[in-house]
Amino acid sequence: MLNFLPAPLIGLLASALLGLNALFWVPVLMFFALLKLILPFKAVRLRIDPVLVAIAEAWISCNSAWMALTQRTAWDVEGIAGLDPRDWYLVNSNHQTWADIFVLQHLFNRRIPLLKFFLKQQLIWVPVMGLAWWALDFPFMRRHSEEFLKLHPEMRGKDQAATRKACEKFALIPTSVMNFLEGTRFKPIKHQRQQSPYRHLLKPKAGGIALALNAMGDKFRAILDVTIVYPDGAPNFWEFLCGRLKRVIVRVQILPVPEHLMKSDYAGDPAVREAFQHWVQQLWQDKDAQISLLLEAARR
Tens digits of per-residue pLDDT, 70-85? Predict the structure, then answer.
């Protein structure tokens, strides 16, 4: 609607609306989150958690509103019909840009339960947003390199324990556990450094999704495998704010939860790790081929 304005002006306007939206909703979130902190009882959590989710959904709706105001995006979306906001889902997606999160939240808001992301521990210090993520029980993870873990083997199980604890909370009310299998945003230099066997994707990491399935696999109705494609190139965050998200293609496949992997010991059983990695690699091969086909069709 406002895309006739110069891109930098749109970017400043979108930034202001994004910030004001957060500053409005975060204090409301914090009021109820502090109640939950002061009264740490299951009965209180069961009453307050739905309120927190409703606030977050209203916040996301407001983000969708300023996106509609500042963007003229052609949305090509398939696979989101028939989803249930009262059930549990494990959601997986490729990851290219911070805009992915806005795309996912916009499309899934109130169609499935609120997306809960696993975040790096450092993000808790992000002004305003860190408090919001804490209030909504987003789990914060300390991700250690293999070299660090060799020097400090006692730290190897810390993230697994944090994941398991978070999933115990998620099991209380309908939740969508969001996982980016690549663990980070796709960049050509990362792709080259990894020597990734995939054309459009980084190598997948099976540990996070394995822990989620192990902790609450019997709760998940299905796995939502999401593929996001930007035919004109993935915008960085500033380009996104400036209204340069012209086209986005999203395909969602509803996959069954692999029952033979749900309660298996990924950390302690090499055979289980191999089975998980084979399952994830096949998922990624199919996604890589799908991205190629979608890009080819978009260029015609």
Answer: 999 999 999 999 999 9
